[in-house]
């Protein structure tokens, strides 16, 4: 089923600050794979025709997906595509030997080849049949046009339209206004007193920039891509972490993110270090808009220095909260303002991505579970923490730039991080010293306590 878009938009739009940094990285490394790819495993009966129609309608509405990027008069601009035809892909892999793996491999390969940002369509959506009562919905798009939060807004709208079509009700007005609204809201911010205050905050906050933690890394990595490992905690481990979080009066994912920061602390060279924290950067009408708005904020962290973990958690979460109130100020501007431009490696170190929820809507009688396959390119190391839909099991995922981290380094980071998490889950008031726990052989940790390790295939 095709839904055509026949309204060309005259003129051009500037790119936003978050897009600017991504565009520059892509132009410097054209073969860089910077794709947000997500699948939703749908279990239960669905109407494939109605699902394709819901995907097509949502794809049509999401104008931020239908743009290209080019240089005009020495400026990078985005232009609406005028030849858009929305026809979601449909694959039947039910007869393959391992349909689930084949489906994920298929999605991971979409947009894997270098793309022409000025001419190519920068997204794909579709439906994969695994069995009569099992399907994968997928969205794969260049990071320039969407972020992880945007993918959840996208599937939420698909579910709304599918429900309306299933009931024979009107679909209702679209919540999306397109890239024009995103650009307009950013321009309003850039001309505001809020931006001036944010700039002053970051200039004062980063007057002295501590070094990032010295994580285990490859000595001479040359491969261009990502090393990814993902761990889902066992039921027993997850319950232990939840009980410890409850003792401290914090959310379980806040507890785990603080444990990540505590692990970074054990790798710090001085009494203070810096890391980055992912911010959805959604305010106003942009809260309901598909697009690329994500930002990162620098966070300075005092090392453990033989403090109790409980006091470290409180101090770390307070620091994150303080910095997040200034999260609209673009990280690229922060780096330029404090004189950190031109570094080969990001001078603000690794990043923590707390994923508050994985949007997993119902489609009639069918349930779904969201599974991010790729969060896009990573310039250093990104640790994402999340809860699985349904059983709420806790997951930890590490994405590392393979020019800086080899497979053994990523394994070492995950092993040492989970060893520390195990210790503070058993006693959240434990004194955690400044030396990293030595758990270099991940096999000594996983079988007895943590759970299932999944190496993401690339």
TrEMBL record:
<protein>
    <recommendedName>
        <fullName>Condensation domain-containing protein</fullName>
    </recommendedName>
</protein>
<dbReference type="GO" id="GO:0044550">
    <property type="term" value="P:secondary metabolite biosynthetic process"/>
</dbReference>
<dbReference type="InterPro" id="IPR023213">
    <property type="entry name" value="CAT-like_dom_sf"/>
</dbReference>
<feature type="domain" description="Condensation">
    <location>
        <begin position="10"/>
        <end position="432"/>
    </location>
</feature>
<dbReference type="GO" id="GO:0031177">
    <property type="term" value="F:phosphopantetheine binding"/>
</dbReference>
<dbReference type="GO" id="GO:0003824">
    <property type="term" value="F:catalytic activity"/>
</dbReference>
<dbReference type="Pfam" id="PF00668">
    <property type="entry name" value="Condensation"/>
</dbReference>
<dbReference type="GO" id="GO:0005829">
    <property type="term" value="C:cytosol"/>
</dbReference>
<dbReference type="InterPro" id="IPR001242">
    <property type="entry name" value="Condensation_dom"/>
</dbReference>
<dbReference type="GO" id="GO:0008610">
    <property type="term" value="P:lipid biosynthetic process"/>
</dbReference>
<dbReference type="GO" id="GO:0043041">
    <property type="term" value="P:amino acid activation for nonribosomal peptide biosynthetic process"/>
</dbReference>
């Amino acid at each position: 089923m095709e839904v055509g878009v026949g309204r060309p938009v005259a003129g051009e739009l500037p790119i936003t600050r978050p897009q600017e940094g991504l565009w520059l990285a892509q132009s410097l490394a054209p073969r860089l794979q910077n794709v947000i790819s997500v699948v939703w495993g749908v279990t239960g009966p669905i109407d494939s025709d109605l699902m394709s129609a819901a995907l097509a309608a949502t794809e049509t509405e999401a104008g931020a997906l239908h743009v290209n990027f080019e240089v005009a008069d020495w400026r990078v601009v985005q232009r609406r595509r005028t030849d858009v035809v929305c026809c979601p892909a449909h694959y039947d892999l039910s007869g393959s030997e391992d349909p689930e793996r084949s489906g994920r491999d298929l999605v991971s390969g979409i947009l894997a080849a270098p793309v022409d940002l000025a001419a190519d369509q920068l997204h794909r959506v579709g439906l994969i049949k695994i069995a009569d009562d099992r399907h994968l919905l997928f969205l794969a798009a260049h990071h320039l046009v969407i972020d992880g939060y945007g993918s959840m807004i996208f599937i939420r709208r698909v579910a709304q339209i599918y429900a309306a079509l299933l009931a024979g009700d009107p679909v209702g007005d679209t919540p999306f206004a397109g890239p024009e609204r995103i650009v307009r809201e950013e321009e309003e911010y850039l001309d505001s007193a809020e931006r001036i205050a944010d700039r002053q905050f970051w200039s004062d906050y980063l007057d002295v920039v501590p070094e990032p933690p010295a994580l285990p890394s490859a000595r001479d990595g040359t491969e261009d891509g990502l090393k990814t490992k993902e761990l889902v905690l066992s039921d027993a481990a997850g319950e232990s972490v939840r009980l410890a979080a409850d003792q401290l009066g914090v959310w379980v994912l806040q507890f785990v993110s603080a444990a990540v920061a505590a692990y970074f602390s054990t790798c710090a060279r001085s009494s203070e270090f810096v890391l980055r924290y992912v911010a959805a950067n959604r305010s106003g009408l942009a809260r309901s808009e598909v697009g690329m708005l994500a930002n990162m904020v620098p966070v300075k962290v005092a090392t453990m220095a033989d403090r109790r973990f409980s006091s470290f958690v409180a101090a770390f979460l307070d620091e994150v909260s303080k910095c997040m109130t200034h999260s609209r100020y673009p990280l690229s501007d922060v780096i330029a303002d404090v004189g950190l431009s031109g570094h080969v490696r990001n001078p603000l170190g690794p990043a923590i991505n707390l994923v508050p929820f994985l949007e997993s809507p119902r489609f009639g009688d069918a349930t779904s579970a969201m599974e991010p396959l790729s969060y896009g390119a990573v310039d250093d190391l990104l640790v994402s923490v999340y809860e699985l839909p349904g059983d709420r099991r806790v997951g930890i995922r590490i994405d590392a730039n393979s020019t800086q981290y080899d497979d053994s380094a990523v394994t070492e980071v995950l092993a040492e991080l989970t060893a520390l998490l195990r210790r503070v889950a058993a006693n959240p008031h434990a004194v955690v010293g400044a030396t990293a726990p030595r758990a270099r052989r991940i096999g000594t940790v996983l079988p007895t306590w943590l759970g299932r390790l999944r190496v993401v295939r690339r």
